[in-house]
Design brief:
Blueprint: H1 3-7, E1 11-13, E2 20-22, H2 24-29, H3 35-38, E3 44-47, E4 52-55, H4 65-69, E5 75-77, E6 85-87
Antiparallel strand pairs: 1-6, 2-5, 3-4
């Protein structure tokens, strides 16, 4: 089973508000954009044409890897509000 198959088994309760945010001006100056490859759920995607970081917060596994790996300290990461976010077990 590959990572995408495993991610497909998770359930999410999507909030209307993101628990993740970035300062796009900082992202523009970032050369590595490690958040785009460190996140196992591929939450971050850099749009070179629009110079914009797209954040698919509803896919977040809440592991915090992005916040730790961001060399610019540019990711504001908080847990989603109660009853929202990833659900690792049924029931």
């Amino acid at each position: 089973m590959n990572i995408n198959d495993k991610l497909a088994t998770l359930k999410y309760n999507k909030s209307n508000e993101s628990h993740l945010s970035v300062d796009n001006d900082v992202c523009i100056r970032c050369k590595d954009k490690c958040c785009t490859y460190i996140c196992p759920a591929q939450v971050y995607e850099w749009n070179e044409e629009k110079l914009l970081m797209n954040i698919r917060y509803e896919n977040c596994l809440e592991c915090g890897a992005c916040k730790i790996a961001c060399e610019k300290g540019n990711i504001l990461w908080v847990y989603p509000d109660a009853e929202y976010g990833v659900k690792f077990k049924n029931g």
